Every structure is written in C-alpha cells, then in structure tokens.
Predict the structure of Glutamine--tRNA ligase.
Amino acid sequence: MSAPSSDANPAAVKPANFLRTIIERDLEAGTYAGRHFAGTPGDATHHAAGPLDAARVRTRFPPEPNGYLHIGHAKSICLNFGLARDFGGVCHMRFDDTNPEKEEQEYVDGILDAVRWLGFGWDAPDAHAPGQNRSHLFYASSYFDFMYRAAEHLIERSLAYVDEQTPEDMRRNRGDFTTPGTDSPFRSRSPADNLARFREMRAGQHADGAMVLRAKIDMASPNINLRDPALYRIKHAEHHATGTAWCIYPMYTFAHPIEDALERITHSICTLEFEDQRPFYDWLLERLAEGGLLAQPLPKQYEFARLNMTYIITSKRKLKQLVDEGHVSGWDDPRMPTIVGLRRRGYTPESLQLLAERTGASKANSWIDYSWLDIALRDDLEGKAARAMAVIDPIKLVLGNWSEVFGSDDHTEACSAPAHPQRPELGQRQFSLGREVWIERDDFAEQPPKGFFRLFPGNKVRLKYGYVIECTGCEKDADGRITAVLARVVPDTKSGTPGADSVKVKGVITWVGVHDGIAAELRLYDRLFSEAQPDAGGKDFLSALNPASKSVTTGYLEPSLRDLPADQRFQFERHGYFVTDRIDHRADRPVINRITGLKDGWTK
Ligand code: ATP
Ligand code: MG
C-alpha cells in the first residue's frame, strides 16, 4: 500500500483516463459500428433482427443490491455513465442480483436513488419507437433462462462437466501458484452423462454442495482462474425475483460476462481485482459466440484502480458494523462515506462528479487524500452558494453607548450585504444592528495573545457591514466565565457611508443581531476517523474513530435565513459551507450541518 497522496491541489492535476483513449480508438476504428441492438437484452438471433445500434458505446453500472453505495461506487457511476454521455452512448443500470438470499428491495431503491441524485439516468432513445425513450434498467436474474441454456450448450460441446468431488478435494486439486492442478476424476464424463447430471441438479435432486458445474479449460493453466472455474452451484434458496423457480444459481464469473453480452455492452469496466478473470471472460463469450448463442462483436473488459481515500473505510461489512453497533446514527449519518451520508452532509452531486473526474482512471492503485473531496465541494459552491452571517459559538456583545448615539436602546440600524460578492444579480441581504449582538466567543480575548486583532479591552474592530466598535471590557459570572462582551459604537463609521474609513481597524468580525437573529441547531461534523488508513493491515478500525467527529451547538443566523427549505446550501462568512439537514430541519426549527470549512485544517 502506498502512502496517502499529499497533493493538496487536485484542480491542477491533469487526470489520466486511459478508458477515454480506448473508446476513442474503438470509435475511430469502427470496432462497434456494425452492431445491431434489438432494444432489449437478448441472444444473437434477437439482436440480429434489430436495427443498427444508435448508441456508439454501451457501458453499465452493475451493483449487487446488497447494501448502500459508497464513494467508491460513486466513482464507478460517474465513470460509466460519464463515458456513455461523453461518447454518444448509453449506460445501463443493471442489478447483479444472481445471488439469492442477500438482496433486498430497500437496497434496490436506495441504489436507484443514489444514481439519479448523482445526476445520471438510464432512459435513452428507443430503437423501435423513434422519438421515444426507453428505460435501460435491467436485472441479471431475468437472464437465468439464457444462462442455463448457455451452460447446457457448453456441456454438449464438452466444455463443461459436473464435478462431484468434495469441496475439500476440489480445493486441494486446484493447486496453487507454484503447483499445477490435478484433473478431477469426473472430468472425463461424457457430455450425455453430464447433461443428465446437470438436469438432476436443476430438478432439485441433489443437496447444496453435492456437486457443481465446472468449465473444462485447463487444470495446469498458470492462471488459476482458468483451472476449470465453477459455473453453477446448487443452492436451495428463494430468490427475491424468481422465487423458488431455481435451485441452482450461476457463479458471478459465469453470469457477469453473459449479462454484458446479452445487453450488447461494448466496454465493460471493472476494478483491478478482476484482471485475472479477463481470460475467462473472453473464453466464455467466444465459446458462446462460436455456438451462435451470442452476437459479435463481443464486449471487452477493462480494469481500473479502485478509489481509495484516506480517513474513510469503504468495506460494506465494516460500514454495516458502524451502523449496527451505533457508532453512527445510520447509513445516512453525515459522517458516513455512503452516498446517502455524503448527500445528507451536504456534498453536492457536482462535487462528487468533480472528484471522479479529477481522480481519473488509472491502472495503478493509489490513495487520494480526503481533502480532495472538500476541495471539490468548495470549487463547486464558491460561485453558487449564497453568503450569510452566522454565529456558531455565541456570546452576547453589548454596545453601552447605543442610546447616546442613536437616541434609544430600541433603535436598530438597517444594514445590507450582497448575497454573493461576485454575483450582483443575486441581490442584497438585509439585516440590522441593535444594542445587543451575538459574536463568536473566540473573537474576544481578555488578554490578547500576540497578533490578535479582534476584540480586547481598548481595541477597535468593525462589525462586518456595520459600525466600528471599541471594546471596553466584559462581564463574568461567579465562576469567572465570561457572560458578555462590552463595547461602544464609534459614531459615523457605518460601512458604505462617507466617513466609514475615518477610523482604521485591523479586525473585522461577523455577528448576528440579538433582536433579529434566528436560533439554529448547528451540527459540526469532522472526519469520522483520525487515522489516514483506519483499516490498513487488518487494524481494528474502531480504535481509529475520531471522538470529536460531531459536536452540536445552538447558534444564531442572520434574518435573511428565515424559513429555509431543507437541503439548502450556503456559505457562512468566515466559517465554511453549511446545509440545512435533509431529515431533521424544519423551517421553524432550523437544523444545519457543516459540510466543510473554508480551508483545510487537516493536511496543513
Ligand atoms: P464493496 O466490496 O465495497 O462492497 P462491491 O464491489 O462488492 O463493493 P458492487 O455492488 O459489486 O460492490 O459494485 C458495483 C460496482 O462498483 C462494481 O463495478 C465495482 O467494481 C465498483 N466499485 C466498488 N467499489 C469501488 C471503488 N472503491 N472504486 C471504484 N469502483 C468501485
Ligand atoms: Mg461485489
């Protein structure tokens, strides 16, 4: 494992994406130009009867519906749907639901939601109905009939056999990296015997594990994946889509290439750990195409390095453990690296797309620093998010000479500020200054440290968009804790008025009026883990949990933030990017999450 990348300027990195190069080359060479596509998945005959495929390339995103998607899946989604979009193609949304028992509708719905939220869809023009769209949402379990037929075809051609060795013998006879495997005693059975046996398997005459169907390739192959891989196993289990229709189920390595071919995928993109499976992927599809079952040209598999990011974990099992043991509030806890978690935290689809783009597609495994995600978020929101003032850790500031200057303690001075400094079209925010305002507790120091330019007795600062004030002291309770900061307003220094600059100050602080501020629950999130690689080398990742990953305060918001809808993002001046919580926020009881600060506090 290489060290975490410390490159703090991802925007300057030119991402390598070898997949684009491959697709460009294929398009230039016309590799897939003469392809027919029937509009729905199917075998060679089915597609031959269809028109030429209007999609120049077909990719797919094929999750197993057995959990919530995480940031690594987001990368794969952006890559597959993004390549199809950029090259005039279609990306299929396919559930790889060939494994009974584990799948649940909750996960199917969650996955579809996540892909849509990221900005992608699977509707594309219908080959048979010009001007209309058709959904390209597929379920691998609907190909079980074809898979079974393909298996019988291989048996008939002596390319597959039923093996009745015990699982232990099978494992032993597979050999290892240095020792070739040994042929099974069942390897030489006749196709007719194998076919009969396989039909018994299908008819439910044998117990789970009693036998498997294996490809007949080469037990001495240097690639262990070619040493007669298993194609079908017996599993008396109910499937969420096909019920009890089947008691044998295809292995992933057999099912996946077939799914790609039936859907006429051109570029089948997966992560590097499948590289050694590619020879079998090709072997299987070529044999089935020779037999006339699958249409040429066949899909090709390409592998890229998975996304590894510091300060998170992406193993579904470990994420589940965090949820089950209550270390987080659920799959959508804003500290989780799941797509639902990132979404609730406030990360935008655009920021995740930007991250996927900037991390490119490469053949070498590497680590991306978590700061890349925050940088992408800031790059996305900087130009979009409305600005506002908020006080996160409030203490009251009292302007003692207020009625002297303005005639009454109840007087308020109208102030305004642009909603966005570079976008005048977004208009002005209105708020007002009164005798009492909320300021940040750490903007006052009774004994200022060196270089402190904010409030301390005798010092002047500007209340942003308001007046210059001069600190006169503070009030304390019996325990010596500061309960209020005292100051006086300096007349004729209001921002935007002619005399505003007559008094020079080094510090400008943000504030919210006590009379018009809105109380809000602020949830300040930080990284869930305090170690860069929390689960490296089998380490106990729970011991790396960051105890300070969440803190909750009651803060105050400027009045322009009244009646906010949920899922609304803004920049709190000086503090960073925030979002109203999707789940808990109410217009009359604001709940706001910190997405990230304005600068990275971790890597520097
Ligand atoms: P995990 O092991 O993290 O649970 P998985 O591979 O079992 O993930 P699938 O549902 O099979 O999950 O994955 C769907 C797609 O997402 C696959 O094509 C897979 O290669 C891709 N994918 C999963 N994790 C990552 C990652 N970290 N980076 C890039 N792609 C990923
Ligand atoms: Mg998987």
Observations:
- The domain at 158-248 is CATH 3.90.800.10 (Glutamyl-tRNA Synthetase; domain 3).
- Confidence is low (pLDDT under 50) at residues 1-6.
- Residues 64 surround magnesium ion (ligand 2) (CB under 6 Å).
- The CA atoms of residues 163 and 184 lie 7 Å apart.
